[in-house]
Amino acid sequence: MLILTCPYCGIEADETELASGGEAHLTRHGPGTSEDDFSNYLFTRQNPLGVHFERWRHAHGCGKWFHAARDTGTLEVFATYPAQTAEPPKTVCDAIRKRRPGWTWQGTA
């Protein structure tokens, strides 16, 4: 069972108390962008076996959205952090690299 700690209220919640919101850190495209950019935003998602960043809502708790960094193959949770971030915080990336040496986020060190 997947257990995540809400970064706002600090409660460890299992997946039955949470609502999945899909992939985190997507770039939203506004008016004036190409149809390809908008189509990619709507339909193109990563589906890796390994490290993945997801949005979750503490539905049966504080109700707030947050991000989780976890391994999709092992359900190992590296960290949870507030949703109001454009990319994973350095501390989260460092925690992942500690357990997965050589890992990079979107090809950056």
Report strand %. 25-35%
Low-confidence stretches: none
Q: What would you say the CATH architecture is? A: 2-Layer Sandwich
For this structure, what is the CATH class?
Alpha Beta
Question: Structural class per helix/strand content?
Answer: alpha+beta
Using only C-alpha atoms, the radius of gyration works out to 15 Å
Instruction: Give the H and E element order.
Output: EEEHEEEH
Q: What is the domain total for the residues?
A: 1
Q: How many strands?
A: 6
Note the main sheet.
4 strands, antiparallel
- Trace the largest sheet across and list its strands: 3-4-5-6
- Can you tell me the CATH superfamily? Folate-binding superfamily
What coarse outline follows from CA principal-axis ratios? globular
* End-to-end Cα distance: 31 Å
GO molecular function: sarcosine oxidase activity
Protein name: Sarcosine oxidase subunit delta
GO biological process, one term: tetrahydrofolate metabolic process
